[in-house]
Design goal:
Order of helices and strands: EEHHH
Shape: elongated
Largest sheet: 2 strands, antiparallel
Strand order of the largest sheet: 1-2
Helix content: 40-55%
InterPro entries: DUF2530
Pfam family, one: DUF2530
Radius of gyration: 27 Å
Structural class: mainly alpha
Keywords: Membrane, Transmembrane, Transmembrane helix
Length: 111
């Protein structure tokens, strides 16, 4: 049987590929159109310390908890009260995360 994926058939002649962040395409390293690789684009972090992310996600879990409370009877009849407890637990974990990230930010600001 002739197997088309045998190692002996690989010649190893594929050109090395580099990522061109500006063109969104790949190009060969020996391409004469590129004298050197383009500079890396500067990317600034939106939320460097993570406090804002914890605050927003914790607020989202609190909103979900409050939104599910009026449906307690319906959720209880169907055995879905775990949704309410999941929202409450995630809110509690998020509150702890907010405190941890605030302390980390304060420690980084002191140093």
């Amino acid at each position: 049987m002739n197997d088309q994926w045998r190692d002996e058939d690989y010649s190893g002649t594929y050109p090395e590929q580099h990522y061109d962040a500006y063109e969104g395409d790949y190009y060969a390293a020996d391409d004469p159109g590129y004298a050197e690789a383009p500079p890396e684009p500067k990317i600034e972090l939106v939320d460097e310390d993570g406090v804002r992310a914890f605050e927003l996600s914790t607020l989202g879990w609190l909103v979900a908890f409050v939104a599910l409370l009026p449906f307690w009877g319906l959720l209880s009849d169907r055995g879905w009260t775990w949704w309410v407890w999941t929202c409450l637990a995630a809110f509690g974990i998020g509150a702890i995360g907010i405190e941890v990230t605030r302390r980390r930010r304060a420690r980084r600001m002191r140093n």
